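Exam prep: given the inputs below (a chain plus pyridoxal-5'-phosphate), describe the expected output before reading on.
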Amino acid sequence: MSLQNPTFIPGPTNLPEVLRKACDMPTIDHRSPLFGEILRPARTGVRAVLKSACAEVFVFPSTGTGGWETALTNTLQAGDTVLAARNGMFSHRWIDMCKRHGLRVDVVETPWGEGIPAARFEEILTVDTSHRIRAVLATHNETATGVRSDIAAVRRAMDAAGHPAMLFVDGVSSIGSMDFRFDDWGVDVAVAGSQKGFMLPAGLAILGVSPKAMMAAQGENLPRTYFDLRDMQRAYANDAYPYTPLVGLLNGLNLSCKMLLDEGLETVFARHARIADGVRAAVTEWDMPLCAASRTLQSDTVSAVRTPAGYDATQIVQRAATTYGVAFGTGLGELAGKVFRIGHLGSLTEVMMLSGLATVEMCMVDLGLNIRLGSGVAAAQEFYRYQPTTIAREV
Ligand code: PLP
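Solution:
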């Protein structure tokens, strides 16, 4: 018998059986009308998940990183300047990608654990009267630190400065799990991946692109071939791809959007918030701080838990994997060894989460940390039982 524990890494997330089956489909001719029956509703579904009426949705065989590259190469030219805050490993990697593409980056160094400093962005944009800055890059949810940034505040900063830069948002670990408002926030490119809120295997870079960014994409920008939005747009006019699409994953995406919309986006977000609150109750009971510097910054999809100084947090993750067969996230970059990360997004219930908290507790006790078995679990249980959900769902 093969037994499978849920995973608690912040993506790839647990794969619901119905989505696994939707991805596992017989070969169809991707140039036949059958394919359009999959592609069209999948793109429409993503647009609804993005809360957008204006976004053109693109889905590339790739991952979130390919989504970053799509955003940059289609809209910017070598030597262009972008503005970004570095507050964790993923914002760092996006900045690094910009530099490797010959872009200049105005980097606002931000402590890991803090969110995007919108007020500082406003100052920088206000003095940029020549509009040298072409795009503002914002990582909505820093998966490395468990920090959620306020994208509405970034948009307000841009508007207050009267700056015409485009707004690119990395929603890889937020879209489909935490509130994301493409239109309301005036987002120009939103980037997601299939393996987090969409509850699918990795393999798709999912993008929403505004009319303004589509205009920018028509120009002679950075070199692009595979990720050229113009080729994809032309192919989409015929419900096709410029190359062989990942039909099974697109079929999964179609169903995954339907599942999110059937559950109701606000219900999905509330479920994530409630599960996250239970995790935070447990972490408080363990007397371990979260990396996120304040309550409003705490992510509802991932918690980065700081272990006592001098203690190697990676041991906990290794112990969980080797002894109990459960996956948690390690610390990344400057947080390596200092935090372990609990992913709580995607196909997850409160009861599944309790098993993850129980596992972490066993690991910490096994490894000699001063934790009482059941203490964090009890705190989460108290929270979950007083916040009842009507659970009749397959998540
Ligand atoms: N951005 C964020 C916030 C992420 O969490 C990740 C991956 O975890 C990425 C980008 C990179 O995405 P991928 O690994 O799918 O290329």
